Amino acid sequence: xxxxxxxxxxxxxxxxxxxxxxxxxxxxxxxxxxxxxxxxxxxxxxxxxxxxxxxxxxxxxxxxxxxxxxxxxxxxxxxxxxxxxxxxxxxxxxxxxxxxxxxxxxxxxxxxxxxxxxxxxxxxxxxxxxxxxxxxxxxxxxxxxxxxxxxxxxxxxxxxxxxxxxxxxxxxxxxxxxxxxxxxxxxxxxxxxxxxxxxxxxxxxxxxxxxxxxxxxxxxxxxxxxxxxxxxxxxxxx
Amino acid sequence: xxxxxxxxxxxxxxxxxxxxxxxxxxxxxxxxxxxxxxxxxxxxxxxxxxxxxxxxxxxxxxxxxxxxxxxxxxxxxxxxxxxxxxxxxxxxxxxxxxxxxxxxxxxxxxxxxxxxxxxxxxxxxxxxxxxxxxxxxxxxxxxxxxxxxxxxxxxxxxxxxxxxxxxxxxxxxxxxxxxxxxxxxxxxxxxxxxxxxxxxxxxxxxxxxxxxxxxxxxxxxxxxxxxxxxxxxxxxxxxxxxxxxxxxxxxxxxxxxxxxxxxxxxxxxxxxxxxxxxxxxxxxxxxxxxxxxxxxxxxxxxxxxxxxxxxxxxxxxxxxxxxxxxxxxxxxxxxxxxxxxxxxxxxxxxxxxxxxxxxxxxxxxxxxxxxxxxxxxxxxxxxxxxxxxxxxxxxxxxxxxxxxxxxxxxxxxxxxxxxxxxxxxxxxxxxxxxxxxxxxxxxxxxxxxxxxxxxxxxxxxxxxxxxxxxxxxxxxxxxxxxxxxxxxxxxxxxxxxxxxxxxxxxxxxxxxxxxxxxxxx
Lengths: 238, 521
Prior knowledge:
The complex is a heterodimer. By secondary structure, chain A is an all-alpha fold. Chain A has helices at residues 2-14, 26-29, 40-47, 49-52, 67-72, 75-84, 104-115, 137-153, 168-173, 176-185, 206-218. Chain A folds into 2 domains: 34-115, Cytochrome Bc1 Complex, Chain D, domain 2, CATH 1.10.760; 137-232, no CATH class. In chain A, helix 6 packs across helix 7 (104-115). The N and C termini of chain A lie far apart (76 Å). In chain B, strands 1-3 form a two-stranded antiparallel sheet. In chain B, strands 2-4 form a two-stranded antiparallel ribbon. Chain B is mainly alpha-helical. At the A-B interface, helix 3, helix 4, helix 8 and helix 9 of A face helix 4, helix 5, helix 11, helix 15 and helix 16 of B.
């Protein structure tokens, strides 16, 4: 018995007590600065998930695993939006150079990780351009009606309240480009179809999308309920 | 004298050892020392398990000196290197982590056992005549031990240490007239820097331990000269005129040498404490270091070690107008009461069985300290700084919302409401959970609260545009359990008329009755 105990004690000293549960694990316990994180999933979880969801859980802003969105958004735009944010909107800058908390390398990791979520769209899918100037508002009104009808038909009546996309407060918080992105990519996880499923039998064309956006822009008001001219809204935002 | 017979090697060795001992004894008076210390007589009743806490505290002190000395071989007390050397000790140096863990758990045990010792002394009336100096030296030892605990926490020099120092300096700074000078004295300058660490190193390694050793010597001297308190019997009262004689009688009639008759319980208890410290060190490991002591690092939730957690909780809970008064007078008042105790209550009953106020005091103090410590550990004192970008929202709080309401959820995240307000338990806990806010506040009330703030909540009126407020509040009024009606303005009827108006899912929850917007318009 004595020898066994002595042997155990000797082993414990030899192994530096490494087997004990209290030994700190350098990989887990050692403090790392947030700038040292290079794992995409951890970066996404800490910086994006709150507003954009995690692929399974949806959130307030557009899901970043939306296949149509990922198919149309240019890589440079995606990077610019993440790094610099969109001034005047709720998308903050994440790059340290712009006042955020992420290094340029971390921004690149997030961009690459998001693009790795891209999925091939069905063969023959014609993608509209990511960005384009607004079109004909008069024509857009009828298309918008068809758009909301499609949502109602898909069971999304509850979402159509508050004026849906024409709500002045909503329009005051989003850019023209975000409206265009929403029409193109939809939010299928919430019951809002993408541009291919709005009108039965054919996808919305680039012109259709621009017209709907133009009509939505025409509904913008200032906080006193007065209509805003399209020129007063920054359409250059990515 | 006959010739000595043949001696065995064993006998020769014994004789030699005895000779050496006698030689040493004549010069060092070891036998005399033994008889007056370990061999001194104690009342038989004092050889009790209740009397082991003092020696157990002493064991912890010895352990702290040994482990602390070993840690000092590697630790560099400089602002630039202290954190690095702690990381080295924890992750690189063989058995360094275990040494740190022993030192950390040793300090925890030392503080805890010291308070048990004080409690026992208080309940057994051992502070009464003629042991006033023993009690007072013990109280000073308590202050010194807590001083060691605080300075040791600072030497960890991580973010907890940094902010702990900041709080300490802030308290010092409140002292009238000399506050600024005291802060300067404490920090070695106007800010927390390398000089601060040098000061605390000096305090932790030289000044306070030296004081403790001197006080322990005095404390033990008093224990030896005034004797260990006899086990109190109900009805046996202390009288200054007769107590000394009575104690001598007890020793004569029922006394016995401390060693070996009394000491074995202390040794068993000491062994138990040692094993417990070793076990805690092996199982739970050392504390920290947490993040480095960068003043710009705000994503931190600094908390002190457990022995100061109750002070931390008191400081966080007390109303602002009481802060300076309580922080500056609370400690001195407690100390004054402790020092005055043997003079206020010097004679009479010793047994706790006949001292209900003493028992109630102990129960009250332990309950208060326990509750405050629990609150200190569990209460959400700080916002969750990453909740706004990291915390997801439960799906029932997202689905079937209008674009405006969804945008309101984005506002809620973007403006960092989530850092203080959880939704369904996910997020910060500083403010109330918003999962049912739609049942508690009307839309108007929410707008007022968001814009003007109130309670602990700051005003966000200047940080939110009217559209952002509209979106945010539109979303928040939808936050309520299924089938539960929204909060209603008391000036509106409980059941609204149905013609031409209806309550929308979100908008009218505040008591507004609006015409249903046509989504197609």
